[in-house]
Design goal:
Radius of gyration: 13 Å
Number of helices: 3
Number of strands: 4
Strand content: 5-15%
């Protein structure tokens, strides 16, 4: 199982490096989720809505905070039960949303 989850984690990292190279990932040592740090000023909820419109389902870190606050803008990316091909395709579909600050507040 360690080999399987390690491959999924490497796939996530590689896909983000290719499609959203400015996104920093943390939390990988904790298990089957990673935290993607969006650019300053990104609107977490707008990025999530745009990703879901593309059939990719990240979660906002705001849902994990006691305050519910969305600053700093971060996404929770689960990869434990997602096949490698789906991780690669999903990040390719939404990487532009993560790495370039789309969904900025105006």
């Amino acid at each position: 199982m360690r080999t399987l989850y390690g491959a999924r984690c490497r796939t996530l990292r590689a896909a983000l490096a290719e499609h959203a190279p400015k996104v920093r990932l943390t939390g990988l040592a904790a298990g089957f989720h990673a935290v993607a740090h969006l650019p300053d000023g990104a609107d977490e909820s707008a990025v999530i809505a745009a990703a879901r419109a593309r059939r990719v389902g990240p979660y906002g870190m705001s849902a994990c905070r006691a305050s519910g606050g969305s600053e700093p803008p971060q996404l929770v990316l689960g990869f434990g039960d997602v096949p490698e091909w789906a991780i690669a395709e999903g990040i390719a579909a939404v990487g532009d949303l993560f790495g370039h600050g789309r969904g900025r507040r105006t």
